[in-house]
Amino acid sequence: MSNSTVPPRISGLSEIAPSYAAILCDVWGVVHNGVRSFPAACDALARFREAGGTVVLLTNAPRLSPYIVAQMRSLGVTEASYDGIVTSGDVTRGLLASRPGAKVLHIGSDIHLPLYEGLDLTLVDSAEADVISCTGLREDERESPDDYDAELRALAARGLPLICANPDIVVERGNRFIWCAGALAERYRGFGGVTHVAGKPHAPIYEAALAHIGALRGTAVAKADVLAIGDGAPTDLKGAKGEGLDILFVTGGIHAANFGPTEQPDSSAVARFLSEEQLAARAFIPHLQW
Question: How far apart are CA 131 and CA 159, in angstroms?
Answer without folding.
Answer: 9
